[in-house]
Amino acid sequence: MMRLILIPVLVLIGAVFSNLSFAHKASDSFLYISSEQIRLDLAVQDMLRIDLIDVNGDGVVSWGELRATEPVFSALLAKHIVLSHGGERCGLDIVLRGMSDHSDGPYTSWSLTSDCLSRAAVNLDYSLLFNIDPQHRALLLSNLSGEKQLSVLSPSNQSLVLGEDISPLSTAGVFLWQGVVHLLVGYDHMLFLLALLLPATRRKNLGTQAESLRRVFTDVALVVTMFTLAHSFTLIAASLGWFSLPSQPVEIAIAISISLAAFMALMDVNARLQRGLAMGVGLIHGFGFAGVLSDLLAASPLKLLALASFNVGIELAQLALVIIVLPVLYRFSFLPLYQRRVFPLASILLIASGLYMAAQRI
Amino acid sequence: MSTVCNLSSPKREVARRCVYRRAIFFAIMIYIALAGRLWADAGNVDGPSIYQPSTNDEIIFRISSSAIVSSGATVITPEQHLKAAKQALVLFRETANPRFLGDAERELAAIPNHKQSAPFYFYRASLRQSLHLFDEALADLNKISAMKADNLESRMMRFTISFVSGNYQAAEQACSSLKQYENSLYAASCVQQLQAVSGDADAAYQALKQAMAAVGVLADRQALIWASGTLADIAERAGRDDALALWQLALQLNRGDLYTRARLASLLLNQGDYQQVMSLTEDYLAVDALAVSRAIAQQYLGGNEALVRILRERFDEARWRGEILHKRAYAQFLLEIEQQPQLALLMAEKNWEHQREWPDAVILSHAKDAANAVQVR
């Protein structure tokens, strides 16, 4: 709510504010769509804008007056709500079922039945009230695609295909790619991963026989997978609203986790502790991923598949990063210069970066 | 493979496999639980329950003067469309009923391009401002400027939009252009409002008070109403004790102004005067900001369940529609009623992107504090 300037017309406004029985909101109709029927809830306020309902002019609308309008409104609904399949218009049986209550008052509830609803890919065209109120919207809730699907029809978007199969392959592809992208653009997650890689390149005794690259890779992959499993859990939990954490401490904790992982690498703590850190910190990183996923997920009807694909995308990106970076570091790890200078310097730089980011986020 | 899973096995390969196996089992369990939850939630598309009134005489709806919006079917000339649009905007201002905005849009859309005059652009800017389409509203005001038809109203609207959206440079330019008008209270109001946001709210308060006193009884009533609201806003920003009395005065001067009523209710709420909030918001449940203030006051006094249910449904429907116009009120609802500081912060931040009045800063600050304080639920 903001101050509105309308000076010339302020003069016209008296101090009268009429008593309001119901809340105000923009004009909406509600369509609940299943394979059996379309249920339409239409506001009595909007029916008054379409046609004369209070025929006796007594200032109230009775149930009898509403029932009397059934033939007129049935014809109107048939004109403005059209189902078609394969280019052919489907027959619609329209019946006034009764009343229902929404947040802005009473609505008439209509049942629209058609044989077409049991078929796949039925086209729905809706144009009711658009000529009277360009701000009118039809709010749809359908289960014809297997999951609950919310949609909105407006003057600029009057059609919708019902029961259209949503491609699981396409959803999986989109979210898998999003997982990859979000890992790559999330530089703090990348730095944490790098800090997890460092201990694998630590050589205490350069003269002794080193572990094979394959074995080092499986060790690192295990740590990275632990990290993925942990952040998958909190990502799912946060995305579904099971629980949440304030964003600022999460962001600070993510930054500190980089320093901690790098410090552990520098101090050469054992692998089990490092796996524990990856799991523990992964739980926090999941909240960070959830923040970017919420908008994307809201738009997807196949949430389970979407979440799984997003996590797989992150894991694949992490493993790809390990595959690219680890052999290079492994190669350098045999150089005395790497062990004496590069390794400690990289660790210290990572510690400093984490602390700097944490300070920035306070 | 029947290897016994013993993590303390001296054989490193066996231990590693065991860890892998357990991790995979753990992941599968998570996804099974998740699938079950989503599956249980899917498929239900029932709306609110349908009932049959018992007799034909049962009254379903009382038609008030503000409930019916003229369809404008008899309007034929562009001038009449413009007049109908203006009437719809006045009714929206009086009642906060968004259906009137639909009427105004319909009437304005019926005016052909070659008949789109400066008043047309002014009313369309007003419509767009009410729909929080600030850039589009400014584009209409630019058209008025291009037609060299700027007047006090269009300049004031430009100032208000720029100020509210935090573009203080543009607001200052609009404010400077107001100085050419005889009625200096509008100019004084905007100058001091800008000074108040720049940090010197106390000096701004004193300066505006002096300007109002200087004009005295000769002041134009509309300008005095505007200046009173501005003074109250500055006083609240400065943390002055008389902010409450000033908002009360502003409401006395213009009883029908919903914005002033909402600001007064909000201040009373912050001061813990819940009974006053109740009497101030009675009969104003239709207005989101006032209804939310009332629900919070009721929360302290007891018995707000019915109103909370209505508000929850109203905001759910707005989210479904995809247009939450009153993000500030929704953020306050999420914070104070739903106890969801994270979501409240998200909404307050979204609100702050477009709207930067004093109450927007307050709700953002409260949401930030609450979000930072909350622990894992």
UniProtKB/TrEMBL annotation, chain A:
InterPro entries: EF_Hand_1_Ca_BS, Put_HupE_UreJ. Keywords: Membrane, Transmembrane, Transmembrane helix. The chain crosses the membrane at residues 175-199, 220-243, 249-269, 276-298, 304-330, 342-359. The keyword Transport does not apply. This is EF-hand domain-containing protein. It comes from Zhongshania marina.
